[in-house]
Amino acid sequence: MGVLMQAFYWNCPEREKRDGQWWNYVATKVPEMQAAGFTALWLPPASKSANLGGPSMGYDPYDYYDLGDFNQKGRVKTWFGNQAELTALIAAAHAAGMQVYADFVSNHNSGADAEEVNPLTKQSRWTKYSPLSGRFPRDWKSFHPSPYETFDGMTFGDMPDLCHRNPRVYTGMIEHAQWLVEEIGFDGFRFDFVKGYGPWMVKAIAEVRYLGKSGPGLKPFCVGECWDNVRTIEDWLTSVNTFMDNPISAFDFPLRYRLKDLCDTFGFSLKTLAQPGTLLAERPEQAVTFVDNHDTTQEESNGVIHDKLLAYSYILTHEGYPSVFWLDYFNHGLARSGTAHGIEALVAAHEKYAGGSTNILFLSDDLYIMQRPGHDAQPGLIYVLNNRGDAWGGADVQTKWANTRFVPVAWDGGSQAEPHVKWTNQQGRGDFWAPPRGYAVYRPDH
Questions:
Q1: So what's the pLDDT on residue 152?
Q2: Parallel, antiparallel, or unpaired: how do β-strands 429-434 and 287-290 relate?
């Protein structure tokens, strides 16, 4: 399915001294990401935000149609740039064969221009929005509680929640999505905080057939942030995908927390990776897998701290749609470009070899070996994960390939010595090894 790059992290324009220049900066990295094998970018919310207390990451939207060209909320450009710079970035990504996904924040708003009394509650709230773009103005009836609906299942801080049952709000969301695809050039959406509003709103946006740059009938890729256990995520997916011809995916948060335990918890049993309870295990075709993101790393202790490449080796060899975090790839140096020891080599292995369903060949507390048998142009691979910190680990396993030579293409761990080339016998058996507290990926050399 490709490999997604989350092309931002929390406060990235400030931390990299690129206020108003983030779109331009990401554009300079497009050739490098294309060469590495990335197939899509996920960008932060592009609309002008409330900017309360300084420039914002965009999760407090104010004017959906101001992408950095109107002087409001304390500045003209967004923290990331303006509309021309954004469309130039998208054009560069498209020229490199990469899709671009918008972060779609439709649950709540912030930065209203005036207070209003809500007659239903008799309370005054900041709900009057008069954006300079002149598009999608809002008043108290646009938010919960509204004459159209009084129940609001989950709020996001103290920001007023949009009432999508209001026909003007519902239409406003659909029209905004159309504008992002048809005018700005996005290819899909990451839906923020989907537990805060009805899944039917996401379904409606996903079902629109957009007039894309390449022609009519474009189906956007859609993924929801349902930060919960696998049962809740599956329930959300079922509700949004029933009678749907453009199925929506979800981020695999349960798998992410298992991978954090793999990396950060002493004595973690690799048998846990084969247990149910993750989206990858239950619905791999709808799982967007990841190791960290802008939310999990806002507090350093919540991110994956140790041996993070173990987690990346897992998601970049298994099924699902893997997402790589910009901070890890570029800032933390885990790309390790030009070597077999980092994310770049794992992305290449995913794109070239990781085809077919996952078959576990060996499993113990300290050793995990699986094969992908191949599909279409991807010939398959064998993946070894070794949790022993003091020695190489491996086992003799039964593969689908008889009399086949296997070449290591990606590996890392306590030793960076190259694993040996392996052969399977006439019955398809062979022994495959990985470095101490490390991994190895082998490809069949047909």
A1: 81
A2: unpaired
Of 371, 364, 363, 417, residue with least CA distance to 392: 417
Question: From CA 5, how far away is CA 32, in angstroms rounded?
Answer: 12
Q: What is the pLDDT of residues 22-79, one digit of tens each?
A: 999 999 999 999 999 999 999 999 999 999 999 999 999 999 999 999 999 999 999 9
**CB-based contacts of 158, cutoff 8 Å, min separation 6:** none
> How is domain 4-251 classified at the architecture level of CATH?
Alpha-Beta Barrel (3.20)
Token look-up 């954006």 returns 131
Q: pTM (2 decimals)?
A: 0.97
Distance CA 377, CA 375 (A): 6
Q: Dump pLDDT digits (tens) for 206-234.
A: 999 998 766 678 899 999 999 999 999 99
Cα(328)–Cα(309) distance, rounded to whole angstroms? 10
Q: How far is it, in rounded angstroms, from Cα 94 to Cα 147?
A: 43
Q: How far apart are CA 197 and CA 190, in angstroms?
A: 15
CATH number listed for the domain at residues 359-444: 2.60.40.1180
Q: Which pLDDT tens digit goes with each residue over 6-36?
A: 999 999 999 999 999 999 999 999 999 999 9
Pair 399, 412: CB distance under 8 Å: no
Q: Where are the domains positioned within the chain? A: 4-251, 359-444
Look up tokens 């409606």; give the residue: 204
Q: Cα dihedral sign for 396, 365, 313, 415?
A: negative
Q: What pLDDT does residue 336 have?
A: 98
In angstroms, the CA 70 to CA 63 distance is 10
Closest CA to 442 of 386, 393, 371: 371
